[in-house]
Amino acid sequence: MATALHGSTPTGTPTDDAVRAALATVDDPEIHKPITELGMVKSVDIAADGSVAVTVYLTVSGCPMRDEITGRVTAAVQGVAGVTSVRVSLDVMSDAQRQELAASLRGGQAEREIPFAQPGSLTRVYAVASGKGGVGKSSVTVNLAAAMAADGLKVGVVDADIYGHSVPRMLGAEGRPTQVENMIMPPSANGVKVISIGMFTPGNAPVVWRGPMLHRALQQFLADVYWGDLDILLLDLPPGTGDIAISVAQLVPNAEILVVTTPQQAAAEVAERAGSIAVQTHQKIVGVVENMAGMPCPHCDEIVEVFGTGGGDRVAEGLSRTTGTTVPVLGRIPIDVRLREGGDDGNPVVLSAPESPAGAALRGIAAQLTTRSRGLAGMSLGITPRNKF
Ligand SMILES: Nc1ncnc2c1ncn2[C@@H]1O[C@H](COP(=O)(O)OP(=O)(O)OP(=O)(O)O)[C@@H](O)[C@H]1O
Ligand SMILES: [Mg+2]
């Protein structure tokens, strides 16, 4: 039986203050801060006989530190004068409590959310992917973006090809991002807002980062860049199925995949494989673009099938089979010197030669992507979407 008067009522029952003061000496074993400061003490109940019941919030259920925390709390409260027994119960923080904790750990600054990943977001996000490199993803991305912007839509492009960034040049975006407060303002060109790691590295310095840094860069591009209200966001991915593709799936799960391939058999096989990753990440494949689909002969009326034929159909069929949905071929873009030149001098062919076969094909694809009725799953707007945003 405890006899000390300090921290106890005249009858010997410990006070709430004394028990909480003891709890303030208990550090969370992982965060190394007092559990009282971390909002982890849910309740303290002191009975007249000196038995104390403490309920502690764990940050996550199944917290590996649960026994450690229970032990520390028990030991600390047991030392309070007048305490006859200690019972520790555990509860789990709600999402809101966890976010509050995370914010207080970051010094009161809440981590910026990715606006495009929020359930009510009205921005359509398309990630342009391919299996092989050099099939024209970046060319397709910038031309779709320029065509959509010319059509009056608010469009942004993230150059998510951190190592092989090429979008700013192709789009003619020479400006550097500026910083306002702690937001990054993206430069724009041809009516398209664009951000790229190339804007942050001096000269043509290569970026040598591993997965986590790539993920962080992409997260910043999506969350810390001030995009405003966008109708469309296009992500130009690096080739293949690497870290960035996985990060995109994690950061913007509602991003739909646009697969680019050439008509070539080998390219189609790899593109199909890249696209089928979307099945694992539960992302939707919006369609297939066949690029470099034949070249009009400059001397005759023939089309020269430089890369063969059938790649787009093959990928679309394969992906339809894998996903159990209809994945369409949205368009075929012929080989066109003007498309390549437009990429080299930052003047997209959809603007410089909109009626050329390549320009027209790209505009046709852009139109299909912007006029699709929006997937309203999970949104209750009570209205019917118009043709365009
Ligand atoms: N339809 C086309 N006609 C002519 N040239 C094209 C066409 N499509 C792409 N190109 C050219 O092919 C090259 C590769 O294109 P691009 O950089 O867009 O491909 P990518 O898939 O983004 O490549 P990477 O995998 O390296 O990122 C560029 O020089 C581009 O100008
Ligand atoms: Mg590219």
TrEMBL record:
CDD domains: Mrp_NBP35. GO terms for molecular function: 4 iron, 4 sulfur cluster binding; ATP binding; ATP hydrolysis activity; ATP-dependent FeS chaperone activity; metal ion binding. It comes from the Bacteria. ATP binds at residues 131-138. GO terms for biological process: iron-sulfur cluster assembly. Signal peptide: none annotated. Keywords: ATP-binding, Hydrolase, Iron, Iron-sulfur, Metal-binding, Nucleotide-binding. Residues 17-88 form the MIP18 family-like domain. Homodimer. In the N-terminal section; belongs to the MIP18 family. In the C-terminal section; belongs to the Mrp/NBP35 ATP-binding proteins family. Binds and transfers iron-sulfur (Fe-S) clusters to target apoproteins. Can hydrolyze ATP. This is Iron-sulfur cluster carrier protein. It comes from Actinacidiphila yanglinensis.
